[in-house]
Amino acid sequence: MNEQSLSFRGRFNIAGRIRTDSRFFRRILVLGLPIAAQNLVQSLLNMVDTLMIGQLGEVSIAAVALSNQIFFLMMLLIFGISSGSAVFTAQYWGKKDMEGIHRTMGLGLILGLAGGTLFTLGAQFFPAQILGLFSKDEHVIRAGVPYLKTVSWSYIFTAVTILLQGVLRSTGEVRIPLIFSVAALSLNAVFNYGLIFGRLGLPEMGIRGAALATAGARTLETLSLLIYLYRSGHPVAVSPAQLLRQNRIFTGRFFHKVVPVILNEVGWSMGITMFTLIYARMGTEVIAAYNIMDTFARLTFVFFQGSGFATAIVLGNMIGEGQREHSIRLGKTILMVVPLLGLATGLLSFILAPWIPVFFNISATAASLVSALIRIFGLVMFIKVSNLHIIVGLLRSGGDTHVGAILELIPMWLVSIPLAALAGLVFHLPPPLVYLVCLSEELIKYIAGLLRIRSGKWVHDLT
Question: What pTM was computed for the model?
Answer without folding.
Answer: 0.82
